[in-house]
Amino acid sequence: xxxxxxxxxxxxxxxxxxxxxxxxxxxxxxxxxxxxxxxxxxxxxxxxxxxxxxxxxxxxxxxxxxxxxxxxxxxxxxxxxxxxxxxxxxxxxxxx
Length: 96
Hints:
Number of helices: 4
Radius of gyration: 13 Å
CATH architecture: 3-Layer(aba) Sandwich
Distance between the termini: 27 Å
Number of domains: 1
CATH topology: GIY-YIG endonuclease
Number of strands: 3
Largest sheet: 3 strands, antiparallel
Order of helices and strands: EEHHEHH
Low-confidence stretches: none
CATH superfamily: GIY-YIG endonuclease
Shape: globular
Strand content: 15-25%
Strand order of the largest sheet: 2-1-3
CATH class: Alpha Beta
């Protein structure tokens, strides 16, 4: 049996609003955000750029990490993003 993979991810709007979420299907979830298929925060604030993600096979760990990141202040979140994506480019643009 293959372990499932889970992702903690950060989406951003053009104005810099951040959304943090968790999913087991990053490609599908990012597609949903980009196309406003999910009612709520990301649709309202147009958080369409995938700027950061982490993966794990531990669903409980992913949920705890999501909560941890949501409790961080803006400066700490920005530092985390810049460690892996200094230019805040949309990481999903390279997907085929």
